[in-house]
Amino acid sequence: MTSTGIMVCGHGSRDENATIEFQSVANGIRDRLSQYDVDSGFLEFATPIIRDRLDALRERGNKRIIAVPGMLFAAGHVKNDLPSVINTYAALHPDVDIVYGRDLGMDMKLIRAAGDRIKAAMDSAGDHIAPEETLLVVVGRGASDPDANSNVAKVCRLLWEGLGFGWAQVAYSGVTFPLVEPALEHVAKLGYKRIIVFPYFLFTGILVRRIYHYVDEVAARHPSMEFVKASYLNDHPLVLDAFADRVSEAIDGANNMNCQMCKYREQVLGFEAEIGLKQESNHHHVEGIGTGRISDQDFDPTAHVHHGHDHHHAHDHKHDDHGHNHDHDHHPYPHADHPLGPRSMLKK
After folding, report:
1. Do 127 and 110 touch, CB atoms closer than 8 A?
2. How far apart are CA 25 and CA 113, in angstroms?
3. How many Cα atoms are found within 13 Å in the side-chain-facing hemisphere of 92?
4. CA–CA distance from 174 to each of 11, 70, 118, 139 (Å)?
C-alpha cells in the first residue's frame, strides 16, 4: 500500500480504440512509476470517470494524490474542466491532499517522439523525394484558446527546422483556422512533390480519422502530388517519459526556466550534437567598437551557419587568454544549404 496515488486524467472519447490507447499509456506510466499507486479515468464520454477512480485511490489508503492531465496543451479542459472536477472532489474529501500537475505542454521529448513518427512515415514512403521537396502539415486539435493554438505552431516550426522540410503549415481539426481541408488545398498550390500530414494528437479517435479522410480527399484532387499520412504520438516511450516527468514536477517542484527547451541542454530535433556545448561569447571581438555605416557588401547573412567562417576583418583574432584564432567552433547549422535558407539573402 502506498500513501501517494497518481491519477491520470484522460479527455475521453466515443471511440473505443481511443479509450484502449489511453489505457495503454496509463499502463506505461504505471510501469515507469511503480513506486506509486497509479490509476486513471476520463473527463467525458468514456468510463471509468475521474471521480470514481479518485474514490478508488482514496479507499486504497492514499493520502496524497497527484492528478496529471493526460492532454497535450492547456486549453479549456486543462484550465477549467479538470480543475473544477478536482477541486470539487477535494472539497468533499479534505482528508486527501490533491495536487494538480501541468499539461504535457512544450517538451523536447514530445518533439523527438513526433520526429520519430514523421521519419517512420517518410521511411515507409521511400527516399525518392528529398526533404527539401517535401511539405509538412502539422494538425493540432484546435481550441478557442489562442495560447494552446500557438503551441501547435511552435511544434510545427521545431519539426520543420529539425527535419529540414521545404515548407510547413499548421492546420487544426476544429474550432479555429485553418481547418484541414482548406489548409491542404492551400499548400497543394505551392508545388511540393510530397506532403506529409502529421496529427499532433496523443490518441486516435473521430478527429484523427477525419484528418486522414480529408488527406485522402485532397490527394484524389491532386494526383501528381504524393500525400503521406504520419501516425499520431500514442504510447511512444518518450511520451510516457514526459508523463513521468510531470508527476515528478508535481511531487518535487520544478524550476521551469524559459530556457527549458534550449538546444544546449535538451536534445532538440536536428540539433542533437549541440547539447552540452561550452558556453562562450562569440562577440567579444566587436565589444565597444562603436557604430558606423555599413553597406550590403559588409553584411553576410550566411555568417554563423558553418564551421570556419571568417568575420571579414583585416586582422587576426588571436587572443593570448585562450590562444586561438577567431575561427570559433560554431556548430554547423544542419540546414545551411536549404534552398530557402540564409544564402537566399545574398546580394546577386
Report:
1. no
2. 14
3. 10
4. 16, 20, 22, 10
Instruction: Give me 36's grid cell.
Output: 506509486
Q: Domains, the chain, ranges and CATH?
A: 4-103 (3.40.50.1400), 108-229 (3.40.50.1400), 280-348 (no CATH)
Q: Which residues contact 321 (CB under 8 A, 6 or more apart)?
A: none
Q: Per the structure block, which three cell numbers stand in for 273?
A: 550534437
| Burial group, residue 154, by CB count within 10 angstroms (0-12, 13-18, 19+) | middle
Q: Which residues pair with 169 in a beta bridge?
A: 137
Q: What is the pLDDT of residue 323?
A: 42
Alpha helices in the chain (DSSP H): 16-32, 50-59, 76, 82-92, 108-125, 146-163, 180-188, 206-221, 237-252
Lowest mean pLDDT among 99-103, 148-152, 171-175, 254-258: 254-258
Distance of alpha carbon 56 from alpha carbon 119, whole angstroms: 41
Residue 318: pLDDT over 70: no
Mind listing the pLDDT tens digit for each residue in 197-233?
999 999 999 999 999 999 999 999 999 999 999 999 9
Name the region of 270 (left: φ>0; alpha: ψ -120 to 50; beta: rest).
left
| Alpha carbon distances (Å) from 275 to 115, 163, 260, 281, 335 | 18, 17, 12, 16, 17
Q: Distance (Å, rounded) from C-alpha 114 to C-alpha 135?
A: 16
- Residues 92 and 226: their CA atoms lie apart, in Å, by 56
Confidence of residue 305 (pLDDT cuts 50, 70, 90): low
184 grid coordinates: 491542404
